[in-house]
Amino acid sequence: MCRTLAAFPTSCLERAKEFKTRLGIFLHKSELGSDAGSVGKFEWGSKHNKEGRCISEDVLGWRESFDSLLSSKNGVAAFHAFLKTEFSEENLEFWLACEEFKKIRSAAKLASRAHCIFDEFIRSEAPKEVNIDHETRELTRTNLQAATAMCFDVAQGKTRTLMEKDSYPRFLKSPAYRDLAAQASATSASASSCSLAEPSHT
């Protein structure tokens, strides 16, 4: 169970704050466009910052699988920041746009949003054109004639596979993430030792 930072000795607080500073530096340029939803911004969790161990466990979990990364809002923000350095953030933004698209319940809004997503990410020479084959592009175009929540599934799946096999391994090997993971390991170990050393209260 995560405790607030105030519950730990000063030395532990300093390590946690140092880690959060490093994480903030890594993420400070990560801002997804409004069309991709609000998941791009880093979140500390609650109004009162939680202790470093919770944050570090999240960071270390990103290397377990691509699903673990995508299921973490902080992980998505970090991955987006990395993709921006490679000028390939459109793949993640398209994937996120599709996730938000599937939540739409109004048929009229679904059709309108589908065309917006197609124009932004799928059509040839789109502003944020994703790397998909011609057959998938034309299939998606055909799907727009009777738009459903699944009309981007094939394109989204191929984009996800591309990120998982290409961008994700590079993200894990990047100096930024490796340094962050090392700090996360140290912070997690420090939080554990501080937790053991914390005096009990009656």
Give structural notes.
There is one protein chain. The chain has 202 residues and is mostly helical. Helices cover 63% and strands 0% of the residues. It is built from nine helices and no strands. It has helices at 10-27, 52-61, 66-70, 73-85, 90-101, 107-122, 134-143, 153-173, 175-197. The longest helix is centred in the C-terminal third of the chain and has 23 residues, at 175-197. The protein is elongated, with a radius of gyration of 20 Å.
Instruction: Give the SSE string.
Output: HHHHHHHHH
Question: Mind describing the biggest β-sheet?
Answer: none
Q: Overall pLDDT, averaged?
A: 79
Helix count from the secondary structure assignment = 9
**Percent helix range:** 55-70%
- Structural class, from secondary structure content? mainly alpha
User: Which ranges are low-confidence, i.e. pLDDT below 50, for 5 or more consecutive residues?
Assistant: 1-13, 29-52
What is the distance, rounded to the nearest whole angstrom, between the alpha carbons of the first and last residues? Answer: 19 Å
Rg, rounded, reads 20 Å
Q: In percent, how much strand structure appears in the residues?
A: under 5%
Question: Could you say which overall geometry the principal axes of the C-alpha atoms support?
Answer: elongated
Can you count the beta strands?
A: 0
